[in-house]
Every structure is written in structure tokens, then in C-alpha cells.
Amino acid sequence: MPLLHEFEQQGNFLFRNRGNLPLLVVAAGVPVAYFTGKNCPPDAVGFNWYEALCLFVSLSGFVMRVFTVGF
Length: 71
Fold this sequence. Notes:
- The chain is mainly alpha-helical.
- It has helices at 2-16, 21-35, 49-70.
- The chain has 3 helices and no strands.
- It is extended.
- The two termini are 34 Å apart.
């Protein structure tokens, strides 16, 4: 079963590099966030529904992970 073997290889790679891969993602994301950031004046305050939704999804995933590890 070549597909099963491929999944196993990918899983082993991700497990071995689970500490380094988030650093790679952050290193790639910081320049993107910096160069595509909003050019708002400092006194412009507004509520962005998209950012609130992203924060909610992120925090709900974090809470789900905490409960999963707890049980």
C-alpha cells in the first residue's frame, strides 16, 4: 500500500520537525504581515469583523486543544 506508506513518512517527518515547523511559518509570516499591513493612521480605530472571526477560530482551536489534552 504505497499511499499508507506515504502517509506514514509524512507523519514521521511532521512529528520529528514539530518544533521547527512553527518557527518556519512565523519566519515566513512576519515579512508578509509587515509588507501587507494596513496603512492606517494611529488614531483610526475601527472594528474589523474578519479579524474578530479569525481570532475566534484561533481561540476556539486553542480551547479545543486544551480540553483534548486535559481529557
